[in-house]
Design brief:
Number of domains: 1
Helix content: 40-55%
Radius of gyration: 14 Å
Mean pLDDT: 93
Distance between the termini: 17 Å
Order of helices and strands: EHEHEHEHEHH
Number of helices: 6
Strand content: 15-25%
Largest sheet: 5 strands, parallel
Structural class: alpha/beta
CATH architecture: 3-Layer(aba) Sandwich
Low-confidence stretches: none
Strand order of the largest sheet: 2-1-3-5-4
CATH class: Alpha Beta
CATH topology: Ribose 5-phosphate Isomerase B, Chain: A
CATH superfamily: Sugar-phosphate isomerase, RpiB/LacA/LacB
Number of strands: 5
């Protein structure tokens, strides 16, 4: 699996630690950097790469994970969720088919972040009668209302 990662300048050290961790799990990671203080630019770049199918998933970091999530979700085909607990990490993938997660470097400890990321990456979305129609409704709305790049 190929993972795109990016962050704002404040989360650079946190991201570097997570890159090492994700690579230790056997995943390929591409670092989209952090030099731009306008975090939305990095979030959008990662989200476009994931939505276009260049990467299987994306992981974004900022102080809370919220700003990155908002920016990434502006990209058609990008589905980002902020992750703060194991259950959410699982459900982001299993129930919502999220292709990007966001974490806050100022609110999430290193060991907790590793557990959250490891959990998210271990899950695979499988279309089912409970979650499938809900995900379909989101994608269908997006297809009919949003302009921009397609997956």
């Amino acid at each position: 699996m190929k993972i795109a990662m990016g962050c704002d300048p404040n989360a650079e050290l946190f991201k570097q630690e997570m890159i090492k961790f994700v690579e230790s799990l056997g995943y390929e990671v591409v670092d989209f950097g952090s030099p731009d203080p306008i975090y939305a630019n990095v979030a959008i770049e990662v989200a476009e790469a994931v939505a276009n199918g260049e990467f299987d998933r994306g992981i974004l970091f900022c102080g809370t994970g919220l700003g990155m999530m908002i920016a990434a979700n502006k990209v058609k085909g990008a589905y980002a969720a902020p992750i703060q607990d194991i259950y959410s990490a699982k459900r982001a993938c299993l129930s919502n088919n999220c292709n990007i997660i966001t974490l806050g470097s100022q609110v999430t400890g290193i060991m907790v972040a590793k557990e959250l990321i490891g959990t998210y990456l271990s899950c695979r979305y499988i279309y089912n009668e409970r979650s499938g129609p809900k995900v379909d409704a989101i994608v269908n709305y997006e297809e009919s209302h949003m302009l921009g790049k397609h997956r």
